[in-house]
Amino acid sequence: MAETPFTEVYFQGHRCLVVEPADLPSNAPVVIMLHGFGTNRYELLHLCNQLGLPPCLFVLPDAPLRVARASSEAHAWYDRYTHSRKDMEDSRDYLFALMDHFSKDIPDDSTRSPDPDTGYSGPSTPPASPQPRPVIIMGFSQGALMSLEAGLNYQGNIEAIVSMSGFIEYPGKTMAHPSAPRKTPILLVHGEWDPVVQEEDTQETMKVLRRAGYHPVLKEFLMGHKVTYNTINAVSTFLQGVFADNGQ
Q: More exposed terminus of the chain, fewer Cβ within 10 Å: N or C?
């Protein structure tokens, strides 16, 4: 499969990969893809092709936190040992700003920060669209947890949420006042042999979402904590349905 062409930009001092097809329709969604613990913006880049979606603006950010005693390219959305709620809220707020930036018509570059070493801040923002683009947010592991955290509480136009091997860590706080419409399509993908996200975590997340009035879909596979060919197909099928339902 051919490599996915991308542009690297900086947003609030953090690197992001942006994959933008030529002649992108003005109503095409922004798909935010969030990596797992200890990796970076490149982890899910292959999905831009493999999901086989209609034209989208893909945005793959680095998580804001650096992993201690690891490569400078190892990032995290929150501390893996303390599961700090503050880390999650800070990362969530960063994602709110990121989703606003790439979905809306922003007339200047005031919200973008250059790389502290080179001063390079990447190309200008995506072309203006008449209306904010809808947002699909998806992620793996820590990125999956943040997809639920940010997607459910984003006040913009959320079109779908996909959690691959994730769950809601703090239901009382995450679900206190969710902003996403109750009809928002939500997919949870879970491995039955997952040693990181337990079955009870997944089932509790499903219960919490249903109790709040959402209608999540759960797809479980005989696998561990990973992204596989079968899970990619499940996510693709789910999102193709979202696109079809929205006439995209």
A: N
Largest separation between any pair of C-alpha atoms in the chain? 49
Q: Supply the pTM of this predicted model.
A: 0.89
Q: Which domains, and CATH codes, for the chain?
A: 7-245 (3.40.50.1820)
Q: Could you read off the pLDDT of 211-244 as tens digits, one per residue?
A: 999 999 999 999 999 999 999 999 999 999 999 8
Spatial neighbors of 200 by CB under 8 A, at least 6 apart, are none
Query: What is the enclosing helix (H) or strand (E) of 54?
Result: none
Note the pLDDT tens digit of each residue in 151-160: 999 999 999 9
Please give the span between the terminal C-alpha atoms of the chain, in angstroms, as a whole number.
Answer: 25
CA distance 161 to 144: 9
Listed in sequence order, the residues at least 6 apart from 168 whose beta carbon sits closer than 8 Å to its beta carbon are: 145, 148, 149, 174, 175, 204, 205, 208, 209
Beta strands in 111-226 (DSSP E): 135-140, 158-164, 186-191, 217-221
